[in-house]
Amino acid sequence: MKTKTAHLGDAQALYRVYRDSPDYFQMLGTEIPTAAEVELELGLALMDPRRHVELIEHGGQVVGVLDWKEAYPEPQDVTVNLLLLTPGQRGTGLGSRVMWDLESRLPPSTARLMASVLGENPAGARFWERLGYRFAVDARPVMTWYAKPLDPPTGEHPGSGPRTKEATDQATSALRGSAGERPLGLSPQALPLRVP
């Protein structure tokens, strides 16, 4: 398994992942994006320097996508907007390996990982809970959010940074405030979060 940064020329590979995952879009109640829509959205995602769209390769083929954003919604957070594997790769442990790999290369200042679960997706919620994420924000019917605190960066002590009660309350308010907005961007899970 390896991940590679997606470039605009990878839009067709990303489109194939979406096309091969009709169950995901059916669960969301949306159509699979067209190849042109995927190319446009990938281009928009690549314009954001904090956003990372990565193709997941296994056995020499692209079998998934990981879309994550640094410093979002708080400066020391990383948010996973989308982790999507094609149906044949689910339940194999590949998703867990992808996330462990991501954790190993996060910016050192990262104090918390966030993950969103769009719509009614109990399997998605169980996946994040198995990896140590805990339910954080109920923004249903659009989504629920899960959070995993990480060890504080070197030189900081527990309770500093975004894990303080005040920062957690601010992030929770920001997440709840976005519940009625329509998902934007490449990832169907990427809601714009307003941070006070």
From TrEMBL:
Pfam families: Acetyltransf_1 (PF00583)
Protein name: N-acetyltransferase domain-containing protein
UniProt cross-references to InterPro entries, sorted A to Z: Acyl_CoA_acyltransferase, GNAT_dom
PROSITE patterns listed in its UniProt record: GNAT (PS51186)
Region (Disordered): 148-196
Domain (N-acetyltransferase): residue spans on this chain: 1-151
